[in-house]
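notes to self, project folder thing:

trying the whole complex as one job this time. last attempt i did each chain seperately and stitching them together was a nightmare. two parts in total, labels are on each line so i dont mix them up again. if this works i'll redo the older ones the same way
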Amino acid sequence: MSNQRKRPNGEREEDDEEDDAEGIGQWERAYVDDRSWEALQEDESGLLRPIDTSAIYHAQYRRRLRMLSAAAAGTRIQKGLIRYLYIVIDFSRAAAETDFRPSRMAIMAKHVEAFIREFFDQNPLSQIGLVSIKNGIAHTLTDLGGSPESHIQALMGKLEAAGDSSLQNALELVHEHLNQIPSYGHREVLILYSALSTSDPGDIMETIQKCKKSRLRCSVIGLSAEMFICKHLCQETGGLYSVAVDEVHLKDLLLEHAPPPPAIAEFAISNLIKMGFPQRAAEGSMAICSCHKEVKIGAGYTCPRCKARVCELPTECTICGLTLVSSPHLARSYHHLFPIAPFDEVPTLTSANDPRRKLGKSCFGCQQSLLGAGNKPGPCVTCRKCKHYFCLDCDIYIHESLHNCPGCESIHRPKSVSLMEE
Amino acid sequence: MATVASKLYSDDVSLLVLLLDTNPLFWSNRSTTFSQFLSHVLAFLNAVLGLNQLNRVVVIATGYCSCDYIYDSSLTLSGNSESGRTGMPALFGSLLEKLEDFIDKDEELIKEQEHDERIASSLLSGSLSMALCYIQRIFRSGHLHPQPRILCLQGSPDGPEQYVAVMNSIFSAQRLMVPIDSCYIGTQNSAFLQQASYITGGVHHAPKQLDGLFQFLTTIFATDLHTRSFVQLPKPVGVDFRASCFCHKKTIDMGYVCSVCLSIFCEHHKKCSTCGSVFGQSKLDGASTVSDKKRKAPDS
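result (full assembly):
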């Protein structure tokens, strides 16, 4: 209710903010801090719905576009696409501080959630694990896995802060986990550290050297102030150290870690990995899975080499050791490999021999008329290869989301390309 | 006025984009003729348009050499009542005319090409991309738009060379939350369509007999998105997750994947043709990853 009273007079809202913060009760304050009404919007029938993620998508497109243009500028970029990342979140006493509103802890959780989704979108075969530090002890929240939902659920269920923080304990735990992974994977640790101290059981320098030896790339994002030990850790292991000044900055810093880092030859050896693309079994079929040794109904995958049943992908077949992945997972990143060339802008010709008059006056993709006001040709773009015309909206959609040129895909390749150019 | 419109749209208005496989190489050796097939489809389209006055239907022909829009119900509704030479109801007169033109043109294009021993696949990637562009335009058109979905009526086998493009389209549809339904009427399985429907949450069905195609179409694919939550639709009988390799465009269920760029190859190469990284010895076969682990275990 309090927001409705404030909303209508927008100018006074700023002045009232502080008075309000004092005057309102504790129960109201939770809502003011949470700003939950901002996460709602009306849909077409006037119902309240949680806000859609279009803003996130837009940011993703921008980042992708930058990557695309970078790929076009340089010849071939090698990226470490198979990443094994542990996110360590410091839930010590310091995480309960409210310099980030409503609290550091809530802000960290919120942005880690966004990060996890973005991470899996950009790094299809990678896996994430979550570790929390509380009462000076590091706990594994989730093991390495490829499902964003399970991580987010585990994270949201554990939101409480207490005790001291221990960097060494966290590193030891993560080191133990990450030592298990195959050598082609990139091992990374991302630490969100809000405490200003670390109370460790032993010599942390030894642990840092150990991480360096195992090629763990450790990055730290601080929430309070710069600390020597964090900086030292990042320098030694080749990670990034940054301290967030506010919430927006924190979000940016986190999302910087989402795109795959340039592959460093010594960090992981490039290799061909033998993989299987198992078929998904029919719904309702019954089989004993090889991973849990239990009878399961439906929804399993069959190893193409030994025909054993496994429950989840990606995994390693327990019978024959073949790495099993779902091929759509791989295909998610292929538009990075085969980017479509930018379309050329068509100069607005008004003469009678405007090529558009011959090729039809509508966008090849969406059939929207390309004629602007007064039957004059409007702005449009053309593909260099197939010479079809597209409207500007389709241009953006094609380059930022579809990654296919409808014109080029509508030509029987490869011989007909030259045929069309005549 | 606005409330009336929103009330109309609060009902389940759908936009059906139908991708019609017109590949002559497929239809020429089938027991069911294309015209029999088409009569089922036209009756189905009529039924969809009849379910709700605001329903819209767009038909895109998927040929062997080209793809094109052949029908848009929002364009033909205004005027244009002459039944034309086809003698069909006015609604589909223009569809048939355009379809005929399209097939003629497509066949000409086929003749221009020398016949290579390729699979006679249709250009599914092209028509899917066009359908998504059209749907994107519907989304742009404002708040009140019909709920779009795509139905692929496909008979030709998959073209492995379209793998990347089809997958791109599928992911784009998934992001737009547009389900891709698929009705596969060919003889083999279509891995593309199975994956498309599975990933986008659409329905995949492969009717055994084409005689009762109309019944399959109306009972399964005419259901709008809201109705689907309380209708028992056919469950997928497994999903074929095979991929195409980049080197020979073969469909494979086991292969080598470059650890840098994730390209798929059907045999071992020394160098990745996509990203250029040089591979070490083929030591990372499935078995050696296990031994790798074992070797490392004592260190930790």
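what i see at first glance: Residues 1-21, 415-422 of chain A have pLDDT under 50 and may be disordered.
need to look closer tmrw
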